[in-house]
Amino acid sequence: MRESTDPAAATLARNLFLLGEAESLAEAFAQAGVPLIFLKGTAMLLRGLVGPGARAMTDIDILVRAGHRTAAEAAIFRRGYSRLAGGEPGEYVKESRAGMFYHSYVDLHTWLWHADESQIWQATAPVACGRTQALTLTPEAMVVHAMAHSMCSNGSLDAKTRCDLAAMLCGPDFKWDMFCDHVGALGLEAMAAAVLRDGVFLARGSADIPDRAFGRLDPTGVKRLAFFFFRLGCGTRPNAVLEYVLPLLINPGLLRRSFFPGRAELKLRYGDASPLSLLRRQSRLLGNLFRRLFRVRRAC
After folding, report:
1. Backbone angles phi and psi of 41, in degrees to 5
2. Most CB contacts within 10 A, which of 9, 27, 31, 80?
3. Dihedral angle at the C-alpha atoms of 63, 66, 67, 73, nearest 10 degrees?
4. 213 and 175 within one domain
5. Are strands 132-137 and 37-39 parallel, antiparallel or unpaired?
6. Regarding beta strands 104-109 and 91-94, do their DSSP bridges make them parallel or antiparallel, or are they unpaired?
7. Are residues 101 and 183 in the same domain?
8. Rounded to whole angstroms, how far apart are CA atoms 175 and 68?
9. Which residues constitute the domain of residue 212?
10. CB 47 within 8 A of CB 29
11. Count of domains in the chain?
């Protein structure tokens, strides 16, 4: 399979290839008895929120329960994947066979930035995936995840996320009341209000945001301060400072999780759960923070 010189045709070909891999993985997980949630582009394509050639996929994002990580990894290995050399824990690759063009990448998650495990798994809906069924987040929960993921990863609302939000919010199955209920249950009114009031990403869409949604999402009390920072995070350029501030506004427990991860996380990332590994983790986080802040200061 040779790569097309037509960008649209190349996107379509790669997406169809990765969707075929997603179907294979869904079947492998079902056989292993491991429930999974497809995230991001894979979920949008499976739910028909975008056309198969409209949004470029780079990898297959899968969420499983923390207790199923080992079984999930075994299922991935059985489909011919191996750990990605130099990648983060949970990243896998299946290199293309002779005569094929594409590699396939999988990113395995056991948690998300913005919610705990029970909240995530309650906000799911089944979807057909090849010869089996899989789960995705509901459209309303997908929107919240897209907002939180971009702001936590980049400290901004990147261009691809803006396009994704426009597609999801304009989808025929999107329900504003369910969206507001989900945002309220997570306590993320400030984030949602800031993003929706920015509204630039809807320029190419046709979403009609009802007044009652703004009324339910308007932050009150101390959340008004959080709203100010989320408004800053609605820019398109990555922001090194907000990359550290916004995750703590989205989920304050991330500070403890980042600096004091559990034994399982330390062993997965560093090979052991010794005090030395914990110190290594904390030193790396602080070093990254100071380097980013120093670059920002120099740029100013």
Report:
1. -60, -40
2. 27
3. 50
4. yes
5. parallel
6. antiparallel
7. no
8. 31
9. 138-259
10. no
11. 2
